[in-house]
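Need residues for this backbone.
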């Protein structure tokens, strides 16, 4: 079926980028598990394909699907979310400044500060919940503004339209890491961003069985540069992974609805619990950027962050006692996960930066899955008893 941008999200999720196989009629795009394509004469290829690092039909179908879901013209897929992030950073050169929001995934922080810093790219950390902080950090060398929203793990919500508006005036490229929201809840290109980045490992994949990343843009020039880098650097996903992601996006809208419902219930339950000092969830009216979240997101997502009253002792006890929630890094799968950012996902963030952000020993992050919510709440109740 040919889809168009007017089709609803669910229709595009299931059909965009995919046609029945022309040779057999198979409804599902085949796994073209091949590294190369035969040529009849040097340089004479049958269709569009010569070598799978450059392009592969299964990956092309996934890329077309993701472009449609984000409302973009082009998508490129990568071997991981950090590989996708690195590809965007390679648009910068020595001497350039990048403005990064202060609360991001620990691996993103490490990539900017410990890999690209060595190549002469300066990173300035900014709390982007105040747009004037972004304005102040811009200088003549600023090439890129990297927004993650909601942020990992503090769930700050950044006004995408406000920040991209400032960037546009200064001709600075913007990239939004949309991993926590997924394309179902938020479409940054429509809010002025130049590039959207995803760790497909999370909600897009949704089943905790593959690692992958993606970039989406509507800017032809940026796409051509990124496509050249994808070919030249080669951090492409495996073909079977592309098939898994293509299968996963078909249910993204249904999964996200349930993630949002369950997370809201879990957040409300924990907010009223005596052992909890504070709950951070964009869907609670107590969240400082609740209004921004309401404006730019279709739902508030599946991530909930909490502070326990008794620091490390209480958080360790809770994390060891959960039965349905699994103690593990990562997020966005159908199964609920729980983790300790200071010791696990954000251990690579320098301690003083963690302290400034509030990533303390009492902080616990929940990725609320799509199990029966009453069972999830009962599990948290017994773990906190
Ligand atoms: O793990 P990978 O697919 O390379 O994705 C990196 C990444 C990028 N952006 C965000 C917002 C992320 O949360 C991640 C990965 N995050 C975890 C593994 C985690 O547990 O937070």
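Answer:
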């Amino acid at each position: 079926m040919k889809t168009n941008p007017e089709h609803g999200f669910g229709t595009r999720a299931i059909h965009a980028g995919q046609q029945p196989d022309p040779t057999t009629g198979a409804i599902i795009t085949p796994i073209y598990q091949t590294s190369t394509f035969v040529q009849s004469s040097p340089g004479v290829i049958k269709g569009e394909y010569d070598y799978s690092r450059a392009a592969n039909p299964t990956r092309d179908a996934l890329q077309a699907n993701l472009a449609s879901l984000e409302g973009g013209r082009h998508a490129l897929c990568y071997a991981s979310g950090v590989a996708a992030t690195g590809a965007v950073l390679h648009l910068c050169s020595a001497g350039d400044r990048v403005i990064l929001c202060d609360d991001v995934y620990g691996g993103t922080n490490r990539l900017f500060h410990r890999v690209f810093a060595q190549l002469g790219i300066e990173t300035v950390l900014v709390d982007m919940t105040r747009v004037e902080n972004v304005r102040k950090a811009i200088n003549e060398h600023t090439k890129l503004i990297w927004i993650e929203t909601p942020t990992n793990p503090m769930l700050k919500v950044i006004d995408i339209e406000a920040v991209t508006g400032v960037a546009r005036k200064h001709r600075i490229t913007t990239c939004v890491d949309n991993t926590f929201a997924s394309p179902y809840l938020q479409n940054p290109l429509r809010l002025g961003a130049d590039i959207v980045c995803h760790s497909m490992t999370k909600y897009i994949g949704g089943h905790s069985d593959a690692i992958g990343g993606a970039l989406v843009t509507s800017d032809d020039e940026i796409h051509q540069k990124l496509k050249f880098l994808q070919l030249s650097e080669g951090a492409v996903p495996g073909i079977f992974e592309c098939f898994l992601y293509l299968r996963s996006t078909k249910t993204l809208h249904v999964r996200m609805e349930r993630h949002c419902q369950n997370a809201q219930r879990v957040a409300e339950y924990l907010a009223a619990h005596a052992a909890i000092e504070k709950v951070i969830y964009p869907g609670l009216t107590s969240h400082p950027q609740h209004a921004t979240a309401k404006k730019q997101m279709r739902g508030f997502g599946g991530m909930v962050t909490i502070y326990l009253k008794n620091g490390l002792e209480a958080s360790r006890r809770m994390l060891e006692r959960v039965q349905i929630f699994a103690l593990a890094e990562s997020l966005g799968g159908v199964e609920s996960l729980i983790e300790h950012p200071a010791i696990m996902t954000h251990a690579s963030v320098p301690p003083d930066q963690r302290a400034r952000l509030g990533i303390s020993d009492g902080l616990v992050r929940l990725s609320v899955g799509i199990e029966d919510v009453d069972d999830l709440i009962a599990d948290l109740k017994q773990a906190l008893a």
